[in-house]
Amino acid sequence: MLVDFHKEILFVGRLLLGGAFIFAGLRNIQNRTFAAQLMSGRGVPQAALVLWAGIVVQAIAGVLLIAGVCTAASAALLLLFLIVATPMFHNFWDYQQGPDRVAKINGFVGNVALAGAILTLIANSLQA
C-alpha cells in the first residue's frame, strides 16, 4: 500500500521556504542601517523606506506561504522581491576575486535556487 504524503510534503516545503523569508526579514531588521546604506549607495531612492517595504513583503508573504493562503500570489510576490533584491545585494560581477566574490556568488546562486522553488510552488498551486 502506497501512502500519499503530498499535502504533508507540500506543507513542509512551504514552511521551509516561507520560514527562510521570515528569517531573512528579521535579519534585515537587525542590519537595517547597513542594508539601507548599501541600497542608497546603489542608487535606491528613499532606501530606508524601500528596505522596510521589502521587510514587510518578506514577513507577510512568508507567513501567507506557510499558512497556504493565497499561495500563488504570495509566492509571486516573493519572486518579485528576489528579482529586485538579488542583483542589489549579490552583485558578484563587481568583484574580481577573493572571499567577497565567492560570498556574493553563493548568495546569488542561493537566490536563484529559491526562485526555482518558488516557481515550482506556484506551478503546483495553480495545478490544484
Which bin fits the share of residues in helices?
over 70%
Q: Approximately what portion of the residues adopt beta-strand conformation?
A: under 5%
Distance between the termini: 24 Å
- Report on the biggest sheet: none
Question: Based on CA inertia axes, which overall geometry fits?
Answer: globular
Low-pLDDT ranges: none
Q: Write down the overall mean pLDDT.
A: 95
Element pattern in H and E: HHHHH
Number of helices: 5
Structure description:
It contains five helices and no strands. The mean pLDDT is 95. It is 81% helix and 0% strand. The longest helix has 29 residues, at 99-127. It has helices at 6-30, 32-41, 47-67, 71-89, 99-127. With 128 residues, the protein is mainly α. The radius of gyration is 16 Å and the shape is globular.
What is this entry, summarized?
The chain has helices at 6-30, 32-41, 47-67, 71-89, 99-127.
Structural descriptors:
5 helices, mainly alpha, globular, 128 residues
Topology:
Elements: H1 6-30, H2 32-41, H3 47-67, H4 71-89, H5 99-127
Helix pairs in contact: 1-3, 2-3, 3-4, 4-5
